[in-house]
Amino acid sequence: MLGLGPQEWAAVALSLQVALCATLLSLPLAIWVAHLLARKTFPGKQLLNAAVHLPLILPPVVTGYLLLLSFGTQSAIGGVLAKFGIVLAFRWTGAVLAAAIMAFPLMVRAIRLGIEAVDPKLEQAATTLGSSPFKVFTTITLPMCLPAIIAGAVLAFAKAMGEFGATITFVASIPGETRTLPSAIYAFLQVPGAEGPAIRLTIIAVIIAVGALLVSEWLAAKAARR
User: Fold this and answer.
1) Beta-strand (E) ranges in the chain?
2) How many Cα atoms within 13 Å fall on the side-chain side of residue 88?
3) pTM for this structure?
4) Quick one: how far is CA 190 from the chain centroid?
5) 41 — phi, psi (to 5°)?
6) Residue 102: how many CB atoms within 10 A of its CB?
7) How many CB atoms lie within 10 A of CB 224?
8) Distance (Å, whole) CA 146 – CA 62
9) Which backbone phi and psi does 106 adopt, to 5 degrees?
10) Which alpha helices (DSSP H) does 3-44 contain, by range?
């Protein structure tokens, strides 16, 4: 397809792997945080909201550097994790962490808007009839905001696919290990005469983005009908 070479295929496969893992791993936490922000009142709510949206405000390179300071092998957290064989810095797993953090605010925002659109009176009526908060959430709130959850997941996936600044700062651009699609395009652009691979990868990125959007629309429409 498009005459991709081994390095290009490796970058595409790694980007899909990183984006999918980042989306799936952060989705349960995003739903929980979105529900907290949409329905609960508690001390520190605004601080939590600010912390969730902080990656959108900070330059991605700053986020990546903070991750390096926090999870590098010489840091307190990274050192402890390394003792258990968990190394994030300059590994593809670190790229997953960076992508998840950068995509998390978009996912939470979309899901929160979906939860806020659910009529609270429906939840109150179910509670009055004896349903537990967990049952109300899983049988009423969650199904009704499913299109928003799908939209948030697709937004996060797209953001994770295109993440560059935090990723290259935290895990660098190691071929076959941490070189994702954006960093591969950047690397090819630094080599004279390598515009061909960069263009091919750009086309692949556009195809994946459009495909994800179409799948999202289809799933959201199907969930809305249900």
Assistant:
1) none
2) 24
3) 0.90
4) 28
5) -120, 125
6) 25
7) 11
8) 33
9) -65, -40
10) 6-39
Q: Which residue, 95, 72, 226, is CA-closest to 167? A: 95
**In this structure, how many other beta carbons lie within 10 angstroms of the beta carbon of residue 52?**
20
User: What does the pLDDT read at residue 2?
Assistant: 64
CA 111 and chain centroid, separation:
13
- 110 touches 148 (CB < 8 A): yes
Give the residues of the chain that fall short of pLDDT 70: 1-2, 226
Amino acid identity, residue 103?
A
Task: Give the N- to C-terminal CA distance of the chain in Å, as an integer.
Answer: 37
CA distance 226 to 224: 5
- Rounded Cα distance between 199 and 13, Å, is 17
Angle (CA) 175 191 14, round 5°: 25
Number of residues written out for the chain = 226
Whole-number pLDDT of residue 226: 64
Structure tokens at 62: 């700053």
Q: Are 50 and 97 in contact (CB under 8 A)?
A: no
Q: How far apart are CA 125 and CA 187, in angstroms?
A: 57
List the Cα angle 187/160/60 in 5-degree steps.
Answer: 70
